[in-house]
Amino acid sequence: MNRNPHLNELGEFLKARRAEVSPSEVGLRAGQRRRVSGLRREEVALLASISTEYYTRIEQGRLQASAALLNEIARSLRLNDDQRTYLFDLSAKERVRPPASGDRQRVDTQLQRMLDDLTASPAFVIGRRTDILGWNQLAAALWADFGRYPEQERVFVRLLFTEPWMRELYADWEEVTRLAIAQLRMESARYPGDQRLTALVEELSTRDAQFREWWTAHDVAMRGKGVKKLRHPVVGELTLDWNTLTCGTDPDQHIIVWNAEPGSPSHDGLRLLASWAADQKRTASDTV
Fold first, then answer.
1. Distance (Å, rounded) from C-alpha 176 to C-alpha 179?
2. Which CATH code fits 5-95?
3. Are 247 and 111 in contact, with CB atoms under 8 Å apart?
4. How far, in Å, are 22, 23, 40, 255 from residue 31 at the CA level?
5. Which 3 state secondary structure label does DSSP give 57?
6. Is the dihedral of CA 90, 91, 96, 97 positive or negative?
7. Are 130 and 180 in contact (CB under 8 A)?
């Protein structure tokens, strides 16, 4: 029997999550001679008030669970908000039209003009596969002129693995990269038939053992906000806040804006970087 690949992915996600929950966390006795880490299938079934056979069929991708049952499973596995959203996205993915293989997102003129007007804050637009769709001058100075990369290679998660300067730039490269993979995994639930996304995952899984390990961990996260530490070759160490805005005309485009606390050394560093970038642009214009 051919199993639904969508349900297979849901089952793999549940398996990964139950491995992270100890019996003591949910009020069960661990007992002796456990062959699996975390919870057993029968323990999840007990917590969700269903039979072990029924839960096993869900985890093996042989059964579509109802919304009510998914709620019980999410509660039993102590899923956070992002994990719960991912679980329900997976269960509903048959109703989502996958983008065509040639469907490439574009930043419209108005959005690019808004990016260009952000002269004091680095900002870029990231798409559903972490494609870098647009950026401003300060983002080019902080990371790189993404326009120098072929469009198919202008992918944030890919650059994290293929470009040595990305590993040097992020003081917490592993944390940044694992978060990027978790966000990519979150996006994949909405478009399971995306051929370009599948090709990206296959390429990076073949290229890098760390990507393969972190992708199969099935961690998920939504894009929100945070703080990152960077080591820039021109202005030195920067501690920057980042936040995510959603494009009104395409909710799969996210605008990531970076800034620093006013009066901080990092704020001064961004101002210095902006001045340096302007000088570089003038020099390039003079030599043309």
1. 5
2. 1.10.260.40
3. yes
4. 11, 9, 12, 49
5. helix
6. positive
7. yes
Residue 25 pLDDT: 85
178, 216 contact by CB (below 8 A): no
Rounded CA gap, 52 and 235, in Å? Answer: 58
Q: What is the second-level CATH architecture of the domain 109-286? A: 2-Layer Sandwich (3.30)
Q: pLDDT of 43-54, one tens digit each?
A: 999 999 999 999
**Tally of CB atoms within 10 A around 29:** 7
Q: Which of 54, 92, 85, 48 is nearest to 69 (CA)?
A: 48
Kindly list the distances between the CA atom of residue 96 and the CA atoms of 3, 63, 99, 193, 250, in Å, as whole numbers in the listed order.
Answer: 19, 19, 9, 9, 15
Which is higher by pLDDT, 157 or 18? 157
> Domain coordinates of the chain in residue numbers?
5-95, 109-286
